[in-house]
Amino acid sequence: MIYLDKTCLGGNFHKIFEQKGLQFEVVDGSDCFEDNKKNIYITSQKNRFVHQCPATREYRCCNYMVVDAVEGCPFDCSYCILQVYLNHNFIKVYDDLEGIRESIISLDKSGKCRIGTGELSDSLAIDNILCMTDFLIPIVNKCENIQFEFKTKSTNIANLFKHNPKNVIVSFSLNPQEIVNSEEHFASPVVARIKAAKELSDYGYKVSFHFDPLIDWDNFEELYGDLLDQLFDSVDEKKVEFISISTFRFIPELADIIRIKFPETKLLSSRFIRGLDGKMRYFKSRRVEMLRFIINRLNKNWPTVFTYFCMEDKSIWRRLKGFDPGLREEFEKNFKWYRNESIID
Ligand code: SF4
What we know:
By secondary structure, the chain is α/β, with parallel strands linked by helices. The chain has helices at 12-20, 82-85, 97-109, 127-130, 132-140, 177-183, 190-203, 220-234, 252-261, 284-301, 314-321, 328-332; strands at residues 2-5, 25-27, 40-43, 50-52, 65-67, 70-71, 76-77, 91-94, 113-116, 146-152, 168-173, 184-185, 206-214, 240-247, 249-250, 272-274, 280-282, 306-309. It has two domains: 1-42, no CATH class; 45-339, Alpha-Beta Horseshoe (pyruvate-formate lyase- activating enzyme). A hairpin with a 5-residue loop joins strand 16 and strand 17. The chain is globular and about 55 Å long. One of its GO terms (cellular component) is endospore-forming forespore.
């Protein structure tokens, strides 16, 4: 159900819902409805919409910027960090689209940057309701210095075909279907995500993929190997802008939440070690094995695609890729887009 705060009457989303004929209820605050993932709440609260992706100096970070226009997600991944970060289950949507527009435009003036909406929500999961792509794409396409990423585990891509794909990347997070079934509740089947990526790339969008989090599993190599083969068979290498790879990591507080909420999960059955940033990770030897398996397959089949590790330490970079990408500003120069080598004409 959609709940519109009474302070948002006459506002941006009120108009969108009326135009689309969507039902909503006007409420006086978020206490007026049940706190669950099926509920969307439009608020007039102000926010600091654009900021750097949170990272620590100990691990290599790509200097990504995030737009927090929506907080919360209808999917229910067992490993989702939002279970700790957010103090609500409902999906909170900021009505202050002007504030978001201004934040993006002022960022554009400060130099080249990669930015996206997929940090505190799935970028497209409810785009049929919120139409954030209709709002954001015309803005970013007027920006000289921005490459904008929509990151998703959904196939909710219909709105994207109305737009010029110029400055936009659509990225899909991928895991083998056995892991999706076990850990990514309500997200789209992985084969459908790959099909959506192909359709978007045929239309002209740059696409990218996130193998993040890689999850240790009994038959890890067989499952991820099959997934990669499916991807290689379906999507043209030339349309792929980048691929990120990283293993499952979590702050210790998340473990109890996962155990209570998802008693059947296999996520926590591996051995973990506390990293320099306080997060729990697989042992380094296992991380290297997992990352090496993926990177070797990618190098062999898609040698021209830029691949990177999200939040890994420099020794792993040196071991698996032969160089240290450096800290934020230095790291980001490795992306094709910074070198004016993006792939779509
Ligand atoms: S899709 Fe992303 S934001 Fe949504 S529940 Fe899964 S991990 Fe969390």
